[in-house]
Amino acid sequence: MTLIQLRALVAIVDAGLNVTLAACRIHATQPGLSKQLRQLEDELGFRLFQRRGRSFERLTPEGRQVVDRARAMLDQADAIRALSRGLKRDNGGRLALAAAATPARYALPAVLAQLRAGLPEVAIQVQPAEREEALARLSRGEADAAVVSTSGTTRPTPLAVPCWRWRRLAVVPRGHALARGARPTLAGLAAQPLVGHTSALREGASLPRLFAANGLSPRIAGSAHDAASIKAWVRAGLGVGLLSEMALEAGDTDLVVLPLDHLLPPCTTWLSLRTDRALSAPIDALVAALAPQADRVAVRRWLAGDRHADYDGGAVPVWSGGAPIPSTPRPALASVSGFG
Q1: Alpha carbon of 258 to those of 34, 115, 217, 219, 323: distances in Å?
Q2: What is the DSSP secondary-structure string of 185-204?
Q3: How many Å apart are CA 79 and CA 112, to the nearest integer?
Q4: What is the rounded distance in angstroms from the CA atom of residue 274 to the CA atom of residue 310?
Q5: What is the pLDDT of residues 122-157, one digit of tens each?
Q6: Angle between helical axes of 3-14 and 30-44 (0-180°, round to 10)
Q7: 0.85 exceeded by pTM
Q8: Which helix H or strand E contains 168, and what residues bound it?
Q9: Helix ranges, the chain (H)
Q10: Choosing a second label site near 163 at 20 to 30 A (CA), which of 70, 250, 296, 328?
């Protein structure tokens, strides 16, 4: 028994038992409608209409009971469709986004302005949080999505769309010993006082693990949740700054950039989504803005239960010049280069 069969039955009744008129009203063919009715009667095991030749005279007593229940089922199906449209249209007028400090400061402003232009009725709330707390808020339902970064390409959550890849850098003031031309070594970095993001320097993070694997104990001079503080500390001579390339700005010409590609793998920024609700219009627009290469139809299929749906889409962009660009081979930065 299907909703199509029940809709055919109700259409015939509402058309005064005129199959031709019923088919026209629901945009079907008369043979198709008759076939749906035959299949329904075969499954039920009794006649729904009393017939005279090929025409219907009236509903049978059994048919009247079935029609009453069919109307109720079709009403419920329509209510579910209306609910789905509402869920897809908005998140109750609010979009709560948990995001780490660096993407929140350097990547999200343009994206949020784009969202506001397309969905002015939606109130956007950005909740600053380091990765673990952002993902915890997502799992508790306190955030509709989370923007977090990881070292490498392992997804932080079951439904996480890759937004862009980026590199980790060291920055020092001009005249610093590490700014003299040679690529920094892991031992050379460990010998310097280091300042970086709290999440990147805590025990268990990829950088401390790398130092430990090579028998090195880095000198941590300080840690902060935001890149602006790290750069200020570098300028004050507190230590060598460890940053995402996202945090470099046009005004940072007084700093010397030391690429660390030869020591550290690239990182990935992800958009992690809730798995307990439909893809709403604001979230769909957020995916389109943050990860335009993603297959949003495949995201919907994944949410509907198709765990093999490949929603990554095309190649993940790389961050360059203040924004993600399509992923294409690009020359490495000079070993030591002024940023400007």
Answers
A1: 75, 35, 20, 18, 20
A2: PHHHHHTSEEEEEHHHHSTT
A3: 32
A4: 17
A5: 888 999 898 899 999 999 999 999 999 998 888 999
A6: 110
A7: no
A8: strand 168-173
A9: 3-14, 19-25, 30-44, 61-89, 101-106, 108-118, 131-139, 186-190, 198-201, 206-213, 227-235, 281-290, 296-303
A10: 250
